[in-house]
Design brief:
Keywords: Amino-acid biosynthesis, Coiled coil, Hydrolase, Magnesium, Metal-binding, Serine biosynthesis. By secondary structure, the protein is of the alpha/beta class. It has three domains: 8-222, 3-Layer(aba) Sandwich (Rossmann fold), CATH 3.40.50.1000; 255-424; 429-491. The chain is built from 16 helices and seven strands. The chain is elongated and about 185 Å long.
Length: 495
């Protein structure tokens, strides 16, 4: 008995058969691209129901010329590998259908080009070549599952003989119903429901997946009951091992996530401390600048006093006297030269005696110098304090770099473990699907066995009845019956 051979492959159109979202492209020429794309994204994610979203988007297209839409349709590229994929499927004898919420103006040319057997899509209403903002069709009010059931009924096949390929939330109903549901570059809402996931934008990637299912069907159909039971045990052991590996990877991912979050928390605290130290340093540096400014202002006042009181001239004369005295003491001079220097020094001393610095000015200068020194001491002390905070700040910033590096490493490990766990989960789902097929084969074999036993029982009953009639005829002729022969006559109510 041959079971579950794939007979029908159903596709969504947008972002599956064609590389783009038709209504978004039409929205561009209608000048409502942003609004349309926002609604499309919500619909694909499953945040709004498809009927409401399609009606709302089509209303935005009101007034668009049909000819412009046809030009957009002509420019929409097929998904990479689409032609080869459809051709290969049809060569293998599969029916190919497209069930899409997209529009006839876009979908009909694709149907003709690829030779698709069934196309179900919506229709944009127009008057005099201009869109009215209305839409109708099987995918406005019905789900894709409802439409799929119509194809299955017409062809006389079951969902278990069907493959569905989609990318958005509105594909979930047919993905769940089909024997094999493939999420093609899909949104998370659909990926969770699919039996297989294709990440690459190459439709040919679905062919090995379908082929694997077909081969599994063929293999199962050739197995005996005992062989299938043995295969089931193997797959259940495999499923258990995959689940353990997946759970261990999820555990490691959680550990890395907790470590990353802990490090990020420590990072924030350390960074906050570094910022506090920086702010404190800047606050002290502001005080340094204030005291420098005050010190410099006082020094400026001191210089003014020196100029106004003759203090500057006195300093010059004193320095000149010191210079002459040093020459006389350290050099060997002729008498005329030495007398000349002595005379000059005496004259300078007389001049110095005449320079009188008043007491009030001197007292004020001394007071200002004292204040200048006080401010300078504050500048030095505050600078040292600011430097201390600066060094601590640098230390904390170095710590933040170290912590950030560890947090980044933990995050990378988290992503890697999560990716590996996701791959294991996909393997788990695939293996679980294979076990379901094995169980269905087991049920079919059991049904066959029950039918065979019933058939054997009926044949045996017919034979016994015939024998019982022969025994009864002999009994009527006077033959003596054995106990078993009497029981046989009673069983079939001959006597």
């Amino acid at each position: 008995m041959v079971i579950f051979l794939i007979k029908l492959v159903v596709f969504d159109l947008d972002n599956v058969i064609i590389d783009g979202e038709a209504i978004d492209e039409i929205g561009k020429i209608a000048g409502v691209e942003k609004e349309v794309m926002e609604i499309t994204e919500k619909a694909m994610q499953g945040d709004v129901d498809f009927e409401s979203s399609i009606r709302e988007r089509v209303k935005l297209l009101k007034g668009t010329a049909v000819e412009d839409i046809k030009k957009v349709a002509d420019e929409l590229p097929l998904m990479e590998g689409a032609e080869e994929t459809v051709k290969t499927l049809k060569e293998k004898g599969y029916l190919v259908a497209v069930i899409s919420g997209s529009f006839d103006l876009v979908a009909e040319p694709v149907k003709e080009k690829l030779g698709i057997d069934y196309l179900f899509c919506n229709r944009l209403h127009e008057e005099d070549g201009i869109l009215t903002g209305e839409v109708s069709g099987p995918l406005v009010e019905k789900s894709k599952y409802d439409v799929l059931c119509g194809i299955l009924e017409k062809e006389g096949i079951s969902p278990r003989e069907c493959v569905a390929v989609g990318d958005g939330a509105n594909d979930i109903s047919m993905i769940e119903a089909a024997r094999l549901g493939i999420a093609f570059n899909a949104k998370p809402a659909l990926r969770k429901k699919a039996d297989a996931v294709v990440e690459d934008k190459d439709l040919r990637k679905i062919l090995p997946i379908i082929e694997k299912v077909a081969e599994a069907d063929d293999k199962l159909n050739k197995m005996s009951y005992d062989e299938v039971m043995e295969l089931k045990n193997e797959y259940e052991d495999k499923l258990s091992a995959i689940a353990s590996e997946r759970d261990e990877l999820n555990k490691k991912a959680r550990e890395m996530k907790e470590l990353r979050d802990s490090l990020n928390s420590e990072l924030r605290e350390t960074l906050n401390r570094a910022v506090e130290l920086r702010d404190k340093r800047n606050e002290i540096n502001s005080k340094v600048e204030e005291n420098k400014k005050l010190r410099d202002q006082i020094n400026k006042e001191i210089r003014k006093l020196e100029w106004s009181s003759g203090g500057r001239d006195r300093i010059k004369i004193e320095n000149e006297i010191k210079r002459i005295d040093k020459i006389i003491e350290t050099r060997v001079l002729d008498i005329n030269k030495e007398n000349e220097l002595v005379k000059t020094a005496n004259e300078l001393r007389k001049k110095l005696m005449k320079i009188q610095e008043d007491d009030e000015t001197r007292e004020k200068a001394l007071e200002l110098r004292k204040k200048s020194e006080e401010y300078h001491e504050k500048v030095v002390a505050l600078s040292e304090e600011a430097q201390g905070y600066h060094e601590k700040m640098l230390e904390y910033f170095r710590k933040t770099d170290e912590i950030r590096k560890k947090a980044d490493e933990a995050h990378e490990k988290f992503l890697e473990f999560r990716r590996m766990a996701s791959e294991k989960h996909e393997e788990f789902k695939s293996t679980l699907g294979e076990i379901r097929q094995i169980n269905e084969r087991i049920n079919a074999l059991r049904s066959e066995n029950r039918s065979a036993r019933r058939r054997e029982s009926r044949e045996k009953d017919i034979e016994e009845k015939e024998r019982a009639r022969e025994i009864y005829e002999k009994f009527k002729e006077g033959k003596k019956l054995t106990k078993d022969e009497i029981l046989l006559l009673q069983k079939h109510r001959i006597v």
